[in-house]
Amino acid sequence: MKALRWHGVKDLRLENIEEPKALKGKVKIKVEWCGICGSDLHEYTAGPIFIPEGAPHPITGEKAPIVMGHEFSGQVVEVGEGVTKVQAGDRVVVEPIYACGECEACRQGKYNLCSTMGFLGLAGGGGGFSEYVAAEEYMVHKIPDNVSYEQGALVEPSAVALHAVRQSKLKVGDRAAVFGTGPIGLLVIEALKASGAAEIYAVELSEQRRKKAEELGAIGLDPSQVDVVKELHERTNGGVDVAYEVTGVPPVLTNAIHSTCLGGEVMIVSIFEREAPIMPNDIVMKERTMKGIIGYRDVFPAVISLMEKGYFPADKLVTKRIKLDEVVTEGFDTLLSEKNQVKILVKAE
Ligand SMILES: [Zn+2]
Ligand SMILES: [Zn+2]
């Protein structure tokens, strides 16, 4: 079968590899759609980050070259011995987290914080940029008939956004600000809508991305035109209840802190490439809190239910659909050069 494998920085190859088998405990899936993620882009331009190179991943036992793609949907074609959760013909999405099941985080049920956590599609186990994947039974979630395969490919990134909002102190009727409206920031806006936020501000430099946020119902603010902190305090009469930092840019974190109200909260949803200096008194003097989240846990069923109600809409968030043959030129390279792209989906054929 055809599969896109990471061999090195700027070296992704579409190759012919052996089809995976439905071994014991595994679910063989014919992939329908797979989204290109920001972390896939990072692996392409500056990897390896999550991809094991040299030493194999402790859980999968695999190392580069690795099949990529972790945001996918598909149909079950075969199940291995002992599998009871799904059967051939079921429409599914994959929650691509490998966890050891034994470390402190795993014992606490926080499998996304597992000390040897790995992603299917980055750490081994096949990936969605191929025709078939054999995933572990526990990773598979059924999707209902009114959630399309395209929509299903958005469950994984939407789970990050929903986890971020669920872990925050946001309450129905609260006001929130999202700093950075790339794909995850836009999905955070959707999660906030679903959570009953009364006002959602979207702080974004790129006009195209800001427009997209407004299309989803947020109030766009252009930090090159207005003093965002002042503006947010004026509009909300004292600051937003929760600010979500989704840029990974140090000065933006400072703005996010300053934009919150007394006792407000900053949620860090991004990965930072360098240190971000902050003034602790900004937290102390207003009794604010700051918290981080990584990935998600236990939220796939909730995301799927919200999608049945129309949240995280693929028709607004998917900006391009391509085929596996075009994944590098029309997918990865396009995402690097065109800021108006949100999610590019790849059809596995
Ligand atoms: Zn991802
Ligand atoms: Zn663990």
Automatic annotation (TrEMBL):
Keywords: Metal-binding, Oxidoreductase, Zinc
Sections of the chain in a coiled coil: none
Record protein name field: Zn-dependent dehydrogenase
Cofactor(s) this protein requires: Zn(2+)
Listed SMART domains: PKS_ER (SM00829)
Family: Belongs to the zinc-containing alcohol dehydrogenase family.
Gene3D superfamilies: Medium-chain alcohol dehydrogenases, catalytic domain (3.90.180.10), NAD(P)-binding Rossmann-like Domain (3.40.50.720)
InterPro entries referenced in this protein's UniProt entry, alphabetically: ADH-like_C, ADH-like_N, ADH_Zn_CS, ER, GroES-like_sf, NAD(P)-bd_dom_sf
Alphabetized Pfam families for the sequence: ADH_N, ADH_zinc_N
Keyword presence, Metal-binding: yes
GO molecular function: (R,R)-butanediol dehydrogenase activity; zinc ion binding
UniProt keyword Zinc, yes or no: yes
